[in-house]
Automatic annotation (TrEMBL):
The lineage of its organism: Bacteria, Bacillati, Actinomycetota, Actinomycetes, Geodermatophilales. Pathway: Amino-acid biosynthesis; L-threonine biosynthesis; L-threonine from L-aspartate: step 5/5. It comes from Geodermatophilus sabuli. NCBIfam families: thrC. Pyridoxal 5'-phosphate binds at N87, G187, N188, A189, G190, N191, T317. This is Threonine synthase.
Length: 350
């Protein structure tokens, strides 16, 4: 049927729900898998974008949050808590509002995009800015969830991973099999863990004939998995992935190694170049962190390490409207004209 009921209903038999589970959904999932002709031309591959900014709150977090909030309600929780670089808090706030739960969020002070802050506030979350980074926020949220009656909905919650794995299902359902390579940005490393789990489940029961190589990309100033060391002061313009001690570190390494993949660093300069290319050439407006997947793909291709002719999917994780500063600062200031066709035409170069 043309009606999409949300990912829990769509993949009910592959998720930890029963007939009596009270599903909390905003009809997330079923996001576009958009062919990327310019990236395909540049790489000699068949490249697609999984556009996760098309989810209800504008990021892939909604896939995990429909599951996490559903299970929180099923288990009788009254309140949920998360640490966030912005998107998790936006999603948790929305799904908690839908379910009538109290939502507490901890964000690194001054380091989250304004659109995401607006989302958490408009959906009624209790928001604290923490004088610390994301890793500090996560440690604090974990402690509060142990000592107080509040459920943690960060991706250390396995229900988040269960929901997020459905993105792999959708890709295989559309393409008819798994791609050769899957690229995605890596921050706290929940999403690469979830995609790998989804691909493995489809391959295990024969829905797909194979699994892809998982290629993860961290921002160069926040690349602990690449360097093998915690980054005490992570720095990147891609605030969503400004994380120095990822919770799912070892699971990301497993996804990389079991798939024959790679996890590399990309500079902020490369991230911004990919961000602009995506907007101008593919017409997909993403937030900077999302462009790390594409920056990484191009970097590997430019190093001569991408064999042409392969099918590649890049997840672009969040909507560009969440963090418009980088779109505006990279563009010339608009010119003001009188209500005069001649002047307007001259300015437009018509
Ligand atoms: N892209 C975006 C837009 C994100 O918001 C995040 C994570 C990632 C990529 C990385 O995904 O953490 O699963 O490796 N954002 C989290 C948050 C940390 O709080 O919103 P990951």
């Amino acid at each position: 049927s043309p009606y999409w009921p949300g990912l829990i209903e769509a993949y009910r038999d592959r998720l930890p729900v029963s007939d009596s589970t009270p599903v909390v959904t905003l009809q997330e999932g079923a996001t576009p898998l958009v062919p990327a002709p310019e990236l395909s031309r540049r790489t000699g591959c068949d490249v697609y974008l999984k556009v996760e900014g098309a989810n209800p709150t504008g990021s892939f977090k909604d896939r995990g949050m429909t599951m996490a909030i559903t299970k929180a309600v099923e288990e009788g929780a009254q309140a949920v808590i998360c640490a966030s670089t912005g998107n998790t808090s936006a999603s948790a706030a929305a799904y908690a509002a839908r379910a009538g739960l109290v939502c507490a969020v901890l964000v690194p002070q001054g380091k989250i995009a304004l659109g995401k802050l607006a989302q958490a506030l408009v959906h009624g979350a209790k928001l604290l800015q923490v004088d610390g980074n994301f890793d500090d926020c996560l440690a604090l949220a974990s402690k509060l969830s142990i000592d107080y009656p509040v459920s943690l909905v960060n991706s250390v919650n396995q229900y988040r991973i269960e929901g997020q794995k459905t993105a792999s299902f959708e890709i295989v359902d559309v393409l008819g099999d798994a791609p050769d390579i899957h690229c995605l940005p890596v921050g706290n490393a929940g999403n690469i863990t979830a995609y790998w789990q989804g691909y493995r489940e489809y391959a295990a029961d024969g829905t797909a004939t194979r699994t892809p190589r998982m290629w993860g990309f961290q921002a160069a100033g926040a690349a602990p998995i690449v360097s093998g060391q915690v980054v005490e002061q992570p720095q990147t313009i891609a605030t969503a992935i400004r994380i120095g001690n990822p919770a799912s570190w070892t699971k990301a390494l497993a996804a990389r190694d079991e798939s024959g993949g790679r996890i590399d660093a990309v500079t902020d300069r490369a991230i911004l170049a990919a961000y602009r290319l995506l907007a101008r050439s593919e017409a997909v407006f993403v937030e900077p962190a999302s462009a790390a997947s594409v920056a990484g793909l191009l970097q590997v291709a430019e190093a001569g390490e991408l064999e042409p002719g392969q099918r590649v999917v890049c997840t672009v994780t969040g909507n560009g409207l969440k963090d418009p500063d980088w779109a505006i600062s990279g563009a010339p200031a608009p010119v003001t004209v009188p209500v005069d066709a001649g002047v307007a035409a001259a300015q437009l170069g018509l």
